[in-house]
Amino acid sequence: MKRASRCLYTGAMLLAAGSMPVAAQMIPNSVYAELTTMSSYSTDSDRIPYEPLQWSDNWLFNFANAPDATHAPVVSPEFHVTSDVPLTGFWPSPPEHAPGTNVYTFRFLDLLVPGYAPRQLPDGYWLSETASAADRANVHTELPKISLVRKVTPEILTGPETLQTITIELTLQEPMTFGPGTPPVNMFFVGTGNLRVAYGGYDLVTSEFVSQQRVDGWNEWTDGTSAEWNADVSRMEVGRTYVFEAALKSTKSPLLLGSPRFKPRVFADYNHTEWLANVDDATAVQIDHPAAPVTLRVETANALQWSPAWTWPRRDMGMSPVVSPFTSEPPYRVIVPASIRIEPETITVGSRGVVTAFIKIGAPYSTEAIDVTSVTLQGAAVARTTMAGDTLIAKFQTADLQGLVAAPSAALSVRGLLRDGSAFEGIDSVRVQVR
Fold first, then answer.
1. DSSP label at 300?
2. How large is the C-alpha radius of gyration of the chain?
3. N or C: which end of the chain has fewer CB within 10 A?
């Protein structure tokens, strides 16, 4: 089975630097070109339920270079989209388009993609003009044909290297059909993609898949950056739950202090893909959509071997990656969630009173991990602390608080560190009065 590239949301990818091996004979390189009608759904949750979802509808072109023995590059690709329906909402950048015409052109002049490694070229998507200017998206409501659950163990990276287990539970809720006049589903993928956290020119967290579990009736695939499984749709059983597992080795830089939450993206994709006849030793290929007045023509400056395809219908479901925020200035510190309550509700500036802060650190972290000597309220050092269940009670001298001005509602900030170097901050509002 031919396999389409799964990197459909990365935009223009960074290409590897360095010299390109010279092939003995410059036989045309193999590339994949696709025109797709797709609907997508994404959530920050660890669960996609079997209930009506709001799907975003758009078009997409995809173009991927496959590794082969020739090492021939792909030079200056261009994408020419012809559509009888005016298009809008382009990503990652708008195309060339002359008013009054129905041709939209994306050019990547002087772009050279090495032929000795798999590479995703810049891809793009667009919407029909029926999209509103406000949300720039066409949306429809539909039941998914599957439900998904993501589990990551452990969720936080506590050491320099952490081996995480990514578990995906997929339940087929209904048959893989879309109704009369629509091609049947013939491709199904489920998988997870790794994460890289970079900031200020530094890789703060990197990760690599080191293994994946075999599942009966499914084919598995990994290149270290993702772990995927695909199945013959006709062999999938409605009502059955399939469980997939992959091991992810995550490495935290010593430049990042603390223990970040780190959960990779999980995705599923079911579609009908129609593979067209290969076009050999040519500088262009054309794909006509079977159900809409849209045509994609891909051109390059050098001759290639083309594997064209169209995909329709297609449903993409994804759970977004989860990464802890961190401070923007070195030393980089993980920021953990905290809830703060301050008493009394009215503070008198210059008084000799005491202000109390009740501090709770949210899961998967613990309030007991707070370095109590680091806690401050409006710049004032903590006077004393006690623990009451899952709450740290911190006392401060009112006279030590900084930057207070009379106000009916003033936001006071409590800051501190955990013993692993993570930072927390919480805010509560009180009334401030002057004696």
1. E
2. 27
3. C
Return d(Cα 97, Cα 104) in angstroms, integer: 5
Give the long-range contacts of residues 233-237, CB within 8 A, separation 24 or more: 233/176, 233/184, 233/185, 233/186, 233/187, 233/188, 233/270, 236/172, 236/176, 236/188, 237/172
CATH code reported for the domain at 29-323: 2.60.40.1170
Give start-end residues of each CATH 2.60.40.10 domain in the chain: 337-434
HSE of 427 in the Cβ direction (CA atoms, 13 Å)? 5
What is the sign, positive or negative, of the torsion defined by CA atoms of 5, 6, 10, 15?
Answer: negative
User: Please, are residues 12 and 92 in contact by the beta-carbon 8 Å criterion?
Assistant: yes
SS3 235: helix
Mean pLDDT by 10 residues, the chain (435 residues): 34 24 45 90 97 92 73 83 84 84 88 62 52 55 97 96 98 93 94 90 94 96 94 94 98 96 96 94 94 92 91 95 93 95 90 93 94 95 96 94 80 95 95 84
Distance CA(221)–CA(242), nearest Å, equals: 16
Residue that has been written with the tokens 């008198």 in this structure: 348
Between CA 54 and CA 140 the distance in angstroms is 6
Alpha-carbon separation of residue 156 from 94, 114, 116, 197, 336 (angstroms): 39, 37, 36, 14, 11
Domain with CATH 2.60.40.1170 in the chain: 29-323
pLDDT in the model for residue 43: 97
Q: Which helix (H) or strand (E) holds 155?
A: none
